[in-house]
Amino acid sequence: MFLYRRTPEMPTREQALKGRPEPEFTVPDRHTVLGTPLLGPYPEGLEVADFGLGCFWGAERKFWQTPGVWTTLVGYQGGYTPNPSYEEVCSGLTGHTEVVRVVHDPNEVSYETLLKVFWEAHDPTQGYRQGNDVGTQYRSAVYTHSPAQAATARASRDAYQRVLTSSGYGTITTELLPADDRPFYPAEPYHQQYLDKNPAGYCGIGGTGVSCPVGVAPAEG
């Protein structure tokens, strides 16, 4: 059905699957845990953050359990194929990684705190994999929505690199890029809040056990 590479590598834009102009499904209206709408426009004052940290089932749960998070949804980002399917993303021929979109109230939870959740919930030094999950779709990524987010993410990455290095880990491979020209495509309905619907379902999320320092990044503004 699809080409699964033995050694994961990113496709070029020319190699990527063509995709489709519109999604083939409708995203559910409400979050099954938080009861909030999944898709925007979101209430005034809320901010959006996008994180890729391996299989998005367990990753999404980490964020919906974080106080101050208003809603979460999973999807695909950072690739070329418009409106990809899960099977296409898993083929390695779209360039996307699995991402959690986190909509939060910055008065209740800072972007820096969300980054701490992100870093500590996975191993950002593994390249195109997370544990036994191998492929470009499992790469670590932060897609930022403002210069302030970008500056905070860079400072947080550099601070975490220092403590990872002192603990014997290698170089962080996290993709840190602006979200502006990297559209977020929501995943199929069955992926949304998957571990709420399937409490015994697979969760590949596992961190390094190294705590990420907070308070080293520049203040948001």
UniProtKB/TrEMBL annotation:
EC number of this enzyme: 1.8.4.11
Its job: Has an important function as a repair enzyme for proteins that have been inactivated by oxidation. Catalyzes the reversible oxidation-reduction of methionine sulfoxide in proteins to methionine.
MF terms in GO: peptide-methionine (S)-S-oxide reductase activity
EC class of the enzyme, as a word: oxidoreductase
Claim: Oxidoreductase is one of the keywords in the record: yes
Matches recorded under NCBIfam families: msrA (TIGR00401)
Entries under Gene3D superfamilies matching the protein: Peptide methionine sulphoxide reductase MsrA
InterPro entries to which the protein is assigned, alphabetical: Met_Sox_Rdtase_MsrA_dom (IPR002569), Met_Sox_Rdtase_MsrA_sf (IPR036509), MsrA_MetSO_reductase (IPR050162)
Protein name as it appears in the record: Peptide methionine sulfoxide reductase MsrA
Active site: residue positions: C55
Reactions performed catalytically: L-methionyl-[protein] + [thioredoxin]-disulfide + H2O = L-methionyl-(S)-S-oxide-[protein] + [thioredoxin]-dithiol; [thioredoxin]-disulfide + L-methionine + H2O = L-methionine (S)-S-oxide + [thioredoxin]-dithiol
SUPFAM superfamilies documented for this protein: Peptide methionine sulfoxide reductase
Domain spans labelled Peptide methionine sulphoxide reductase MsrA: 50-203
Name of the gene: msrA
Keyword terms: Oxidoreductase
Taxonomic lineage from the root: Bacteria, Bacillati, Actinomycetota, Actinomycetes, Kitasatosporales
Pfam families for this protein: PMSR
Family: Belongs to the MsrA Met sulfoxide reductase family.
